[in-house]
Structure prediction request, 365 residues.
Amino acid sequence: MIVEFVDLKRQYATINKEVSKAISNVLSRQTFVLGNVLEKFESSFASYLGISYVVGVDNGTDGLNLALEALGIGKGDEVITPVNSFISTTFCITNAGATPVFVDVDPDTHQLNINQVKKKISKKTRAILPVHLYGAACDIESLVKICKKHRIFLVEDACQAQGSSYKRKKLGTFGVAGVFSFYPGKNLGAYGNGGAIVTKSKSLYMKLLKLRNFGQQKRYYHDSVGHNSKLDDIQAAVLSVKLRHLDDWNKKRNKLAEIYKKMLKDLKFPKILKDSKSNFHLLIIECKHRSKLQAYLLKKGIKAQIHYPVPIHLQKCYKRLGYKKGDFPVAEKLASTILSLPIYPELRKKEVEYIAREVNNFYGT
Prediction:
């Protein structure tokens, strides 16, 4: 049996008629950039999240970059962020000219360590940039309180958290801004690159509209130096279709996660915070002999992956920051022990059971 890590062909088979109709509508209009289809998606996504404004951009990384730029974060500023995210979370900080201040993570949730966040706040701290890793909530309630106390910005990296929530409030809507990625493999994924910035602030929204469109509000009249970062209408059309299915897809992921947890009861999974709902973008296990397990599963046709094998502070591109091995022991340990097993809505129950059995067979349980 071959089990792909993600199989987008299966998903497409279930929505191909809806998607074809939506794309055909864009083609008939011949409006591909900043058109009505994008506006409709932005409005629908805002309603889904329960937030005022959505700005579609080219990708999640651009979203993070533009959010920090719009907030005026730059040289001399510090931004606190976890060390175990995908590297674009930190790229946006250094791209802005600011300094990333790393924190370790909680060994149970794999989310940023709140106590370390409190200790790392300085006079230079302008923002905290948490990551809702794997699609699960970090301790966002505590971060809201910390940011309010110190009068600093809270910008959420919700790139993996489409549809996830804390106390029934959607992740990405707690801070001054939240950023989503619509990379094809995400729970809400486009058929190419895509991203969005969400906010409650009208003034920030207006800044972002200019920034994504060459710094202009009126064509050819540029109020500021901007960027060319727009979610195109074809991708918006695809996302509008998928948004209607998102909650159902996330429910299916949760059911599959329960099967994994029941069958792999001897292994440790990241803890999900009370009162929160994960979308299970990733299904993570902590395991001994990870490399051997991954190789064993591949021989059995199971394509497991690692998210992420090298913590950001140990990446060559950030050697100049002066961090060394041992500075963030929890994240470093997790980087050597975690493995991501296949999980997506179209994954069949028998396939999950097959994967779990093979993991147990490897460990002799």
